[in-house]
Structures are given as structure tokens and as C-alpha cells.
Amino acid sequence: MPNKTYQVPAVVKALEILEYLGRNGESSFTEIHTTLAIPKSSVFQILTTLKSYGYVRHAGNSSKYSLGFRLFDLGTQAISRLDIRAEATPLLRELMMKTGQMSLLGIQDGNEGVYLAKAEGNQTIRIHSWEGMRFPLHSTALGKVLLAWQEEEELAAFLQKAELTRYTEKTITRPEALKKHLRQIRKQGWALDDQEDELNIRCVGAPVRNIQDEVVAAVTICGLASEMNGARMKKFPALVKEVARQLSLKIGGKFSDVK
Question: Domains in the chain, ordered, with CATH?
Fold first, then answer.
């Protein structure tokens, strides 16, 4: 709940009007005044001020009000200044504490992935990874997440150019098999790397979405296969998906499990 100690009543009313228009779309002066129970004179002054600054506008030739494009401009500026790495770092630490496994954030760069942030786990054996390290897409949980939500044309272009190198006997190296696997990942909302990139290492990954609902990054945990199994393993996908959801919200996204 917002702290009301130092709130300015006129600003609160203005925000209530903006949020009302955001929820309800085009609305008349009477609808705004009546629904929000704000005096007519206050509603008139606030709407006039907001309109003069571009935060509300008249919808076409109608007398009804709707949100103005200035809000879009501000939102775009806010998003452009977001540092996804800074937003992710505390969430990765929290995920590491809950699971005991190394946590990572990664993005796609061409036909490879790049780790942007990392929270080291408490494994007795160190897993080789670092911020800035590049990784294959077809054999890692992070990479498979980034591929799974691509458009068909984009995925086809990747499969045409990329070399699906076999790293272990479990690595998927046939394009059709990989496409089938990616469809399953998209359906369930998370990906598993079951010793496909490195023997004895398992990873679980989930997508991070932006304001356009596009998958722009992925969160993963990685650990020894001997530790990521049984009842513990069953809990990990939900934990990773929740952190991915929280990070999506932090960067303006609307997270959904399946799309």
C-alpha cells in the first residue's frame, strides 16, 4: 500500500484519473467525476492541466477523454533506460539462496547466447561460466528458452546457419528433433538442459518478457545432476519461472506461462 503520510491530494486525484482512463478507455467527464467521486471543479482543473501537457486527450471529435501519447513517450524513455542486469542481480541472488544452485541471466547475440549476470551457487565443484561468456543455444536451458519463443522464420534462419554441435550423447543435433523439443518447451513454459551441454550438469531455464511480450532474455539455474534430481528437481521449474516473471514485471513485461 502507498504511504499516505506525505501525499499531495491534487496529485493523488490526477493519478486516480489517469489510472481510471487506463482501465476503462474513453470516458466522459461525468463518468470520471461520478465514478471517482471527485468534485466537478477538481476534475475539470485536473483534466485541463493534463490535457495541456499531453497526458490526456480528446478521443477524435468526441468530448470523451482518453490517455495521451505523452504517457507513451515517458514509458518508452523509462524502458530505454532500464538496466536488465541491475534489475536481475538481486533476483538471481534470491534464486540462488532458495535453490543452492548457480543462477544466471542470458540473452541471445546472433547464433549464440551471452551471460549477463551470475550468482554463484554453493556447489563443491565449480561450473565454468562467467559474465560475458558466450554459450550455445541448442544445448543449454537458457539458449533453448531463447529459441523456443522465436517466430518460425527466425528459428528457420537460425537452424540454417547454426552448427548443432554434439557436446554429449544427450545433445540434440537434428533440426527437426530440436524444433519438436522447442515446441514442448514453449508449451510447458520452461526448459531443461539434462547434461546436454556438459556431462553431470543440469540446468532449468525460463523466459523473461519485455513490454511487447517478447522473450528478450532467460533466467536459469545450473548444478550437478546428482543434486538437481528427485523431489528437489520438481520444485526448481516453478522457482525459476517465478524469478523470470518478477524480472519481466520489473522491465515492463506482462508475463504468461504459455504463448
Answer: 9-79 (1.10.10.10), 82-250 (3.30.450.40)
Of the candidates 76, 151, 149, 136, the one whose C-alpha atom is nearest the C-alpha of residue 106 is 136
Its pTM stands at 0.70
Residue 241: all three cell numbers together:
519461472
Predicted confidence band at 258 (pLDDT cuts at 50, 70, 90)?
very low
- State the virtual CA torsion across 108, 114, 117, 122 in degrees, nearest 10: 120
**How far is CA 189 from its chain centroid?**
12
Q: What is the mean pLDDT of residues 14-19?
A: 93
Distance separating alpha carbons of residues 224 and 204, to the nearest angstrom: 12
Please tell me which residue, 211 or 48, carries the higher pLDDT value. 48
Q: What is the pLDDT of residues 166-191, one digit of tens each?
A: 999 999 999 999 999 999 999 999 99
